[in-house]
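Researcher: For the annotation table, I need structure tokens for 18S rRNA aminocarboxypropyltransferase. Please keep the output clean. Sequence:
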Amino acid sequence: MAKGKNKEKDEPRRSNKTSNGHSKRVHHTKGRQETKYSSVMRQAKFPTKLAMWDFDHCDPKRCSGKKLERLGLIKSLRIGQKFQGIIVTPNGKGVVCPNDREIVEEFGVAVVECSWARLEEVPFSKIGGKFERLLPYFVAANPVNYGRPMKLNCVEAIAACLAIVGHQDWALELLQNFEWGPNFLKINKDLLEMYNECTDSESVLQAEKDFLEMVEQERESRRKLKSEVDIWELGNPNKKFDEEEEDENESDEEDEDEDDVYESEEENILIIDVPGPEDEEYDEEEEEELEEEEEGEEEKTKEEDGIEKEED
């Protein structure tokens, strides 16, 4: 038997060439699948440039910078690459102020995406640019550091910068990509209004100083009030209220008892008629009438006796 005689005929190979003689390109999906954010990244637009140096210190699922990058709203920069706009960084010299508006509008905002606990690992000398800035006092609204001052994450830092220079609409547009985001502008509303009235870095720093002094004075007054008035000495206010109600009820019951006693006493009073001047006049007239009646009866009896004697 010849070799391969009993073998089944091979299926004809499909040609990789098209009708015009050019070879087809085979696209392998493995390793090249598009993410669900790919279409968004091509379409997302923002009024100004946003960038960050990402050092992968944060959990990717919680990192606000990585989410902005997936949404196509921010660009990631390399170490050694500089940025021309405002750079919000712990290494800044001045603070963001309303005078930075033109720089933000023309060149954008960049941040350093890193952990507050690992700042010593960040090569600040290899990143940054001409306009490095600090942020004034703000309170965080992100779930990790909610309520803690100056513990802002990436999107909060960018939003704070945009709001200070007068673009709260841009800040809100950015924060709306997070459920908790708009709350950042709400809890810092008074601070933002105060900073918007300033002009340069010095006036912003002075406004920040005045605000912190006011907060400290309020805190000190609360401490004094707490030391002067001990709530335990005041007793239970609910119990005090109940006691007052009981006193009122008791007083009402006593009044009702007094009314009952008064009514019962009125029922048991013995009425005694004491004669007065009018009663004496009445008695004299009555005696005169009685005397006249007696005299009349005597005359009648005498007449009757006289008649009887004549008959005899």
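Researcher: And a one-line annotation?
Model: The radius of gyration is 53 Å.
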